[in-house]
Amino acid sequence: MNDTSPDRTERELREALQALAGGVQPAPDAYRTARGEWLRRERRRRLVLAVLITVVFALATLIGLWVLNQAPSDPGVIFSGTDAGLGHASPARPQP
Q1: Which stretches are transmembrane (predicted)?
Q2: Integer CA distances (angstroms), 17 to 3, 6, 7, 23, in order
């Protein structure tokens, strides 16, 4: 009689997979190779992150210096200095 029960199919499949897995032998240096690749990727990721942080910091510094350089060079209205006789600077008064 032809037995096609799920138990038999499952048992045959398990036996076939065990036979297949038993014949597989890992490479002797598989762990070392995988670990080395992982460490290289980790170093590269850290290097890229450090370069990106450096570029962003330098760019922010350059933009800040450029903005400060764009400030007007005239003294402004607070220290107009028209009262030469006084010993201190006084705020400029609006003209009517």
Answers
A1: 47-68
A2: 20, 16, 15, 10
pTM above threshold 0.70: no
Answer yes or no: are the C-beta atoms of 91 and 78 closer than 8 Å: yes
User: How does pLDDT run across 74-96, given as a tens digit for each residue?
Assistant: 766 666 666 555 555 555 566 65
CB-CB contact of 60 with 68 (8 Å): no
Cα 34–chain centre separation: 24
